[in-house]
Amino acid sequence: MSITPTITQFCHQTWQLESTALLVQESDNQIYVVTEKTPFHPVSHIWPDHPADRGTLNGVEVEDCLVGAVELESNTLYVGKAIPVKRDEPGWAFVVVHVLAKADLAIEEGQVVTLQVDKEYQDSLSRGHSAGHIAYLALNKVLVEGAYWRKDADRKDPHGYYDFNSYAQETSFVSEDKCLDTYRLGKTLRKRGLNSADVLTDLKTIEEQVNRQINQWLNLDSVIKVECHGECLTDSRYWQCDFNEKSIAEIPCGGTHASSLTEFDEILVTLAQIDAQNIEMHTDVKGK
């Protein structure tokens, strides 16, 4: 069958749909199934901060959900880290790959299948991911207002504050109602103007101020939107929320997200020093 880029529905409040199987391929003890459209969010092969959705295909458990790329001339599927090209490469179609156990399901290309996402699990990841964005915006603001920068920084966040998160973030991992970010306060960041020693000394004070700022923002009950610039997996998506700052926060992001600040009863940030140059930001969510 002709392979087309997967039409994604994971940002459209859609958890179940029917779609045509475009490609079915066996790999070891697994089956890769690519459908025309899907409500499943796959884990990114480039920045795997947001886990794959859970759910079923024709009632059978989807063991994993990955990004794939099909070379159209040869109809060859490459999955995850094996993908040899960048997105939107001519002659390639980027797809969502649903991974099933080989013995569980007999399925043929051209068959219409039913895909159903575990909504409760997706919602918990969505809250965790949105909370991570909110937490780092609050941290950026607190570090500027607390005069922890001694000179202007070239990078600014959506609110116009120096973008500590962009400069210092090493890793970010979303899990159920949680986001864990690691930051490196190394020589490069000090040269850019951050008073790293003061940040480490004042870490608990900064933590308190970040949580105070988050609480103020949550009281706004603002809507959270994901602006999609296209319907395919590789099309750009932007997380948006109005915190009554200088401008509406808009962050490029391919994950799933909460739809409103009203979904959060509490977002609690804990800052922890790991060693002389590294800190962690634990962002925990209590949903309503």
Give the helices and strands, then pairings.
Blueprint: E1 7-8, E2 16-27, E3 30-35, E4 37-38, E5 55-57, E6 60-61, E7 64-71, E8 76-79, E9 92-101, E10 112-117, H1 119-145, H2 164-168, E11 169-175, E12 178-184, H3 187-192, H4 196-201, H5 203-218, E13 224-228, E14 237-241, E15 249-252, E16 264-273, E17 278-287
Helix pairs in contact: 1-5
Could you explain how this protein is built, in words?
The protein has two domains: 7-117, Elongation Factor Tu (Ef-tu), domain 3, CATH 2.40.30; 120-287, Threonyl-trna Synthetase, Chain A, domain 2 (Threonyl-tRNA Synthetase, Chain A, domain 2), CATH 3.30.980. The protein contains five helices and 17 strands. With 288 residues, it is α+β, with helices and mostly antiparallel strands.
Q: Which range does the strand content fall in?
A: 35-45%
Spell the H/E element sequence. Answer: EEEEEEEEEEHHEEHHHEEEEE
Proportion of residues in helical segments? 10-25%
Give me the count of strands. 17
* Unreliable stretches: none
Task: Supply Rg.
Answer: 21 Å
* Strand ordering within the main sheet: 6-5-10-2-3-9-7-8
CATH topology of the largest domain: Threonyl-tRNA Synthetase, Chain A, domain 2
For the biggest sheet, the summary is: 8 strands, antiparallel
| CATH homolog superfamily of the largest domain | Threonyl-trna Synthetase, Chain A, domain 2
